[in-house]
Amino acid sequence: MLCILSLTSIPIALLFSPSSYLLQETIMASVFHKLIVLRLLVLCCFLFSCVPQCADAHPLKICKFDQIYQLGDSISDTGNLIREVPIGAATAFARLPYGETFFKNATGRCSNGRLMIDYIAMDAGLPFLPPYKNLDAADFEHGVNFAVAGSTALPSQALAAQHIFSPVTNSSLNVQLDWMFNHFNSICLNSRDCVEKLQNALFMVGEIGGNDYNYAIFQGKTMEELRSMVPDVVGTVVDAARKVIEVGGKRVVIPGNFPIGCLPIYKTAFQTNISAAYDENQCLNHLNEFAKYHNEELQKAIHTLKQQKPNAVVVYADYYNAYKFLLRVATFHGFEREKACCGTGGKYNFNMMRMCGGAGVEVCSHPERYMSWDGVHLTQQGYKIMAAWLVNKIFPHLLCHF
Questions:
Q1: Do 141 and 34 share a structural domain?
Q2: Residue 14 host element (H or E)
Q3: pLDDT in tens, 177-210
Q4: Which domain does 127 fall in, by range?
């Protein structure tokens, strides 16, 4: 078990006495060394399956989070969409093979098993987040998941004004925020009580905004039109984080977008024989460049938010490079990098008209050897590796006490 040195255990007078400079340097070096060892051990655990040796390597436990609150879309939804009628309950996510690997039944997660938020909760020593819509059976003591698969950052009315239709749900980010604040009203006596109750909570604001662009792309918008959407999408996401801070959130994580040009859904839709259209990972350059543009603008807005809210800890979660890391290690793990596990036909085993969960659509025999589950979302194994990378990257920036 790792033991992290706490500076609070050292007498202040000793730390700051003129004769203690060498001791201070030794202590800080020890803390830094232990943090580096911890980060390396986390990656070892997830990537090389050395589970017995790293059972206690859960850095987020050091933060002592007692709750996690999640806003977002299908990357994080643990069961809200399938409880929306009539559309959500009729989606493929409400039935097998979704959920088959870990849960043995469909939970509403858009994968064969656990998601990144599940692994983050596990790392923090907390149970899986219950979906907000599961009001009958949910225990919300350790947090709530408000994410809805198919949701957008911008309200459906704002998208409609740009002639973009949100086909799955109207539970956009503003709706999810309303749910969150209604929940807080039910557990807090007043605003001061909320600040007290939320001081040890972790807030995940996204990933969200990807569907705004997905719907725009598949409804015929140009790249120029997509770029014009970025300020509004980014502004909406960061404004949501600001509202979370104002209600009492102390630690907020805001993820960026995936390298969407690497996903089978896009590689199928924009397949070309022009080799220059692809990068070294066989991902579509123009779509990844757009994703990077969104992420750059998001990071600029986060920087401004941190200046405006200096008492809160706001951290950018780099989903783009987490996915790129997964691509790099895929060969080492023997993963199938190109094809979806659950799908039909073509170079990428993806067909928009015959998607996972549909009649006659087959599932691969070994999902643990695939990155992509259904051409849009990742497998449990893919999310596991991404979550390990993310925890390793964001943990030092959460400024938890060691």
A1: no
A2: helix 12-15
A3: 999 999 999 999 999 999 999 999 999 999 999 9
A4: 63-398
- 170 shares a domain with 42: no
Specify whether the CB–CB gap between 72 and 236 falls below 8 A.
Answer: no
The helix/strand/coil state of 336 is strand
- Given the residues 139, 186, 377, 397, select the one marked as catalytic: 377
What's the length of the chain?
402
**Dist. CA 97–CA 359, nearest whole Å:** 11
47 shares its domain with 124: no
H or E segment to which residue 119 belongs: helix 116-123
Is there a single domain that holds both residue 37 and residue 78?
A: no
Q: What does the pLDDT look like over 283-293, one tens digit per residue?
A: 999 999 999 99
Which residues, in sequence order, are CB contacts of 249 under 8 Å at separation 6+?
Answer: 69, 198, 201, 203, 312
Query: What are the tens digits of pLDDT across the range 30-42?
Result: 444 545 545 555 4
For 232-365, list the strands marked E by DSSP: 251-255, 313-317, 336-340, 342-343, 362-363
**Residue 78 DSSP code:** S
What are the residues whose beta carbons fall under 8 Å from the beta carbon of 200, sequence distance 6 or more?
64, 65, 66, 67, 250
- 377 a catalytic residue: yes
Assigned token pair, 35: 């943090």
Set 74, 151, 156, 171: catalytic member = 74
What is the reported pLDDT for 36? 53
Question: Which residues are 363's β-sheet partners?
Answer: 342
**How many C-beta atoms surround the C-beta of residue 136 within 10 A?**
6
Are 145 and 43 in the same domain? no
Give the pLDDT band (50/70/90) at residue 1: very low
Q: State the DSSP string of 150-215.
A: T--SS-HHHHHTTT----S-S--HHHHHHHHHHHHHHH-SSHHHHHHHTTTEEEEE-S-SHHHHHH
User: What are the tokens at 303?
Assistant: 């920087």
Tell me the pLDDT tens digit for each residue of 299-311.
999 999 999 999 9
Annotated active-site residue in 58, 183, 374, 397: 374
